[in-house]
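ingest -> validate -> predict -> emit
validate: passed (alphabet ok, no gaps, 269 aa)
predict: started
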Amino acid sequence: MFPIGERPDFIVDLNQIENVPSEIAIQGKTKNLERLKELSSIEKLWLYTVNQTEFDIIVQYVKPKIFYVYEMRVEDLSSLELLSNTERIYLCWNTKASKLWDLSKNANLKSLSIEDFKRLNDLEPLQYCRTLEELRLSGGIWNTLKIDTLEPLKKLTNLRYLSLTNIRVKDESLEPLTHLSKLEELIISNQFPTEEYARLSVALPHTKCDYFQPYVKLNDSIDGKDIMVIGKRKPFLNSLTDVNKLQKYEEQFRSFQEKYKEQLKMKDE
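emit:
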């Protein structure tokens, strides 16, 4: 998720800067960080390899519209509460933080990405950032993001884009997402029970999601199997030799959909 290839070259020493740039890339070890006081009008800030002290100093001085942070050794994220005018925050690879910050302070935040936070389990503070239109939550290459529940996300009714990849949810429920009526696109991994995808496909009929169907065709086959059946622990099959099995899974998915359609109908009555 993190757009590594887009950042400018790192500034080694902030005293080298003569005119205030609109975009800058620094590291925690960049020299003369205090000079950021004079560069507070920077609109896009890239920050790499930073510890707690460096992070707090930098966020105190600069309030960018777009903020990228990669490789954090930061346990306390509360400094991010100072970014009341920031619109986009990308946080990638934090080995220490076990909780988020008070996102109600980020009054203008439209887009948030949290990737590879191996100690994070609770999303509760997210529910207070009602301005969010885009949210990306992901594990890392080696670490799955292990979350207790997606329940806080039901409050984010302005979400238009949601990505949940390499994520494991303890209660295995996608029900909170049924409240996101403005959601235009959902990117999600095939790690939930089949019934959860079927229910969501009924609740969000206008949302684009590859997994709102019984199975998907793979671009590249795996050991001769070119079909992935939707749902946790469901198999990979062959589209030519496993026709009967595919029909069975399709019937099961459709029956789940009909079940929730009936529930919605009864609720309306």
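The helical segments are 52-61, 194-203, 243-268.
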